[in-house]
Amino acid sequence: MSTLTSQNTLATSETKETVYAGLLGGLVGGVIIWIYEAIVWVGIQHLMPMAGIPRNATGLVFGKGVQESLGAMAYVVGTGIHFFFCFAWGVLFAFIWPYFRRRGYEATFVALFFAIVLWIVMHVAIAIASNDHPNYLDPFVVIGGFMSHFFYAVPLALIVKQRLR
Predict the structure, then answer these.
(1) Is residue 17 helix, strand or coil?
(2) Which of 15, 78, 93, 155 has the most neighbouring CB atoms within 10 Å?
(3) Burial class of residue 134, CB neighbours in 10 A (0-12, 13-18, 19+)
(4) Could you tell me which residues come within 8 angstroms of residue 12 by beta carbon, excluding any fewer than 6 positions away?
(5) Which of 125, 142, 90 is nearest to 111 (CA)?
């Protein structure tokens, strides 16, 4: 009976550590993707003002009309959407990472493919949810989107790898 209890305790502990690693990695990745957007999308490409970054997710999910009608709440809603998905994808990566680690793959290598899958899944969902989205056939949108998701996924992977040694 005590062996079963200790195995359950170990499994619970491992699950908590996996979730924590994913949440931490997702947080760091979410902040770094915003830094990338501030430097590239705002500073270099002038695609939006700096204040547009936190509210961007609101417009992508609900449309620009809703984003504008929410006013200052669009910043809160957009930040919530952004970090909800950063955490969810982070926890998912933390749970799939051991599979790739056992097969000898490097975390950053897995992260590159994970970033591409994230961009595709997120943007298909955005295209379904709203008609107010960038032109996903524009090469600049595709390349910029992949790059931003690389800046999310690589730090995520490195943190998860380090936390789940």
Answers:
(1) helix
(2) 93
(3) middle
(4) none
(5) 90
- Which residues contact residue 112 at a Cβ distance below 8 angstroms, ignoring those fewer than 6 apart? 150, 153, 154
Reduced DSSP (H G I as helix, E B as strand, rest coil) percent helix, strand, coil of the chain, to 5: 85, 0, 15
DSSP one-letter code for 75: H
Tell me, what DSSP letter sits at residue 138?
S
How many angstroms separate the CA atoms of 7 and 115, rounded? 34
Provide the token pair at 141: 């949108």
Amino acid at 99: Y
Domain range annotation of the chain = 18-163
